[in-house]
Amino acid sequence: MLGRISAFWARIEITLAALLAAGVTLLILLNVVTRNIGAALFWVDELAIYAMVWMTFLGASAALHYGHTVAITIMTDRLPAAVQHVIARLVDAIVLGFALAMLWFCWLWFAPAALIGNGFDVEAFQGATFNFIYAEPTATLGVKKAWVWLAMPVFALGATLHALANMLGRSPLPQEAAE
């Protein structure tokens, strides 16, 4: 069940990342055209950067599901299958630990409980926590940076889901490796 949820979420992540990649391409093309005609749109650069940030985090999370992450296997390839299996489990545990730690740090950073406790009043939240995450605007777009930074907790949730699904879904030690 968890594997199917992970697969479904990975498909959503890949679809959104692909749309964002197309968006980045179009934004850069728009930027080239407008600069060439002498009517540069400065917000285009910033929007392209934020789209690329979101694309990267979504793609990285989906890569965990599909097993397309970067790995150096020069040593592990030479080990017996049983040891490779243990190392793969250890890597899954480390990735899960990282994802859970990132979730925790995002929880502390975004402080949703404090925001709710202050009745979603951003100024009261800032006064109580000295956390200005919900107030800082982007340089040219004027949108709150919290919308951009939201890519990190979304990544952390996806990474946690995929890492947990990988850990629980990994087949037990192959019979021939156990002998």
TrEMBL record:
Record's subunit section: The complex comprises the extracytoplasmic solute receptor protein and the two transmembrane proteins.
Major place of residence: membrane
Family designation: Belongs to the TRAP transporter small permease family.
Role noted for this protein: Part of the tripartite ATP-independent periplasmic (TRAP) transport system.
Topological category with respect to the lipid bilayer: Multi-pass membrane protein
Domain Tripartite ATP-independent periplasmic transporters DctQ component residue range list: 25-169
Sequence intervals crossing the membrane: 12-33, 53-74, 86-110, 146-165
UniProt keyword annotations, A-Z: Cell inner membrane, Cell membrane, Membrane, Transmembrane, Transmembrane helix, Transport
Highest taxon of source: Bacteria
Location within or outside the cell: Cell inner membrane
Pfam families named among the record's database cross-references: DctQ
Protein name: TRAP transporter small permease protein
